[in-house]
Specification:
The protein is built from one helix and no strands. The protein is an all-alpha fold and about 60 residues long. The N and C termini lie far apart (about 75 Å). The mean pLDDT is about 85.
Amino acid sequence: MLGQMLLSEKLEDNKVAAEWGQKQAELIEKGERITQEMIKKYIPLIQARCAKEEDGIQSDVRH
């Protein structure tokens, strides 16, 4: 019985707990995918904006 844990004497309780755990794992995975998609999409935009602002500061210093 290695790797298994008895949560309850009732099989149905264990089944519900396992389904809840699986749903939580799916939600975590989905959140990680969304985070990675946002990073890929928005980091270049943020970096471009910062570079543009830095160029504006540099041109102000030159004048």
